[in-house]
Amino acid sequence: FTQGWGSRRRWVTPAGRPDFDHLLRTYGDVVVPVANCGVQEYNSNPKEHMPLRDYITYWKEYIEGGYSSPRGCLYLKDWHLCRDFPVEDVFTLPVYFSSDWLNEFWDALDVDDYRFVYAGPAGSWSPFHADIFRSFSWSVNVCGRKKWLLFPPGQEEALRDRHGNLPYDVTSPALCDTHLHPRSQLAGPPLEITQEAGEMVFVPSGWHHQVHNLDDTISINHNWVNGFNLANMWRFLQQELCAVQEEVSEWRDSMPDWHHHCQVIMRSCSGINFEEFYHFLKVIAEKRLLVLREAAAEDGAGLGFEQAAFDAGRITEVLASLVAHPSFQRVDTSAFSLRPKELLQQLREAVDAAVAP
C-alpha cells in the first residue's frame, strides 16, 4: 500500500536506490540533523547540522570509498520534513495509525511534530533504545533494507550492566561478559526482522530495539500516542520524575522550589513535564468533548462518536491519576484556561452521558 506514496515514486531511482539528484533539486538547501554512528555519546550519537546537499556529497563519497570515510559513518536522523514542508506529497497515513494524539497536539500548537525522515548508507544504525514517551512507532522503508532487533517490555532489564545502565549496542561482545552484565544470560534472543523496501514495521509501546541499515536506506518514521498506550506514557513520566527526584534528593531540604526544579530537569531530560502533560491531555480532551456534546457522527478528522467516547474515557482515567499526584498538586494551575479538576468533571459527565442507555 506504500507504492503510491510520493516519496516512493520520486525519491527512488528505477534501480531502487536513493535518487540523490531529485533530493538535491528539491531539498538541497534544507539544513538537516546528522548523527555520527561511530561516536558514542551516552547511549546515543552526537549530532551536527548541515545542508542536505553537503550530506549527500558525503554520502556519495562514502559509497565511492567502499563505505568508509575518515569522517566516520554519518546518518541523517530525525529530519522534520513534514513539519517544514507540510504540503509535500510524501506519504499517506495508514488508517490503522490515524488516532495520533502526539502529532494532533503538536499540530495544534504549530510548533513541532513526531514525524521524521531517516536516510543513511549501508552500515548506519540506531543504538538500543525505546521510543520517546513510550509511544508507538511505525517505520516504512522508502528504499533499502533494515535489520531490526526488538525486545519485549521487561527483557531489557536483563541486559543492564552491573551499574544499572542499558547497553548502547546489543550486538557488542561485552554483553557476554558476565562480570559487566551479570544477568545477560537471562535475556531471551531478540525478535529479528529484515524490513524490505516498501514494508512497514510497527513497534509496540515500550519495546526496546536497535536498527541497522543493510543497504543505502531512506525511511519515514512516526511516533504516536493514543488511548491504547496513554497509560504507558503516564507511567513512564512518573518513573522519569522519580529518577530525577532520586538523583537530586540530597538537595531536597536545602534547595528552594525543589519540586519545581525537578519538573524543569524532567522536561530537559524527557521532553515533557507534568504541566505540559496536562496541556497535552487538555487539547485532546477538548476535541473529544466537542464531538460528544454535539453527538456528531464524524468531525473533519473522521473522529466518530464511539471513538471520542473511548478516548475521553482513557483520558479521564489518566487525568484523575495526574490530578491526585502530589507533584502535580504543587503545580500552579491558577493561570490555566481550564482548571484540571474542572476538565476532569466535564470528562466524567460526558463519558457517563455517552454510555447511558
UniProtKB/TrEMBL annotation:
One of its GO terms (molecular function) is 2-oxoglutarate-dependent dioxygenase activity. Keywords: Iron, Metal-binding, Oxidoreductase. It comes from the Eukaryota. GO terms for biological process: regulation of gene expression. Its cofactor is Fe(2+). The keyword Signal does not apply. SUPFAM superfamilies: Clavaminate synthase-like. Coiled coil: none annotated. Pfam families: JmjC. It catalyses: L-lysyl-[protein] + 2-oxoglutarate + O2 = 4-hydroxy-L-lysyl-[protein] + succinate + CO2. PROSITE patterns: JMJC. Residues 82-241 form the JmjC domain. SMART domains: JmjC. Belongs to the JMJD6 family. Interacts with ETF1. Interacts with the ETF1-GSPT1 complex. This is 2-oxoglutarate and iron-dependent oxygenase JMJD4. The lineage of its organism: Eukaryota, Metazoa, Chordata, Craniata, Vertebrata.
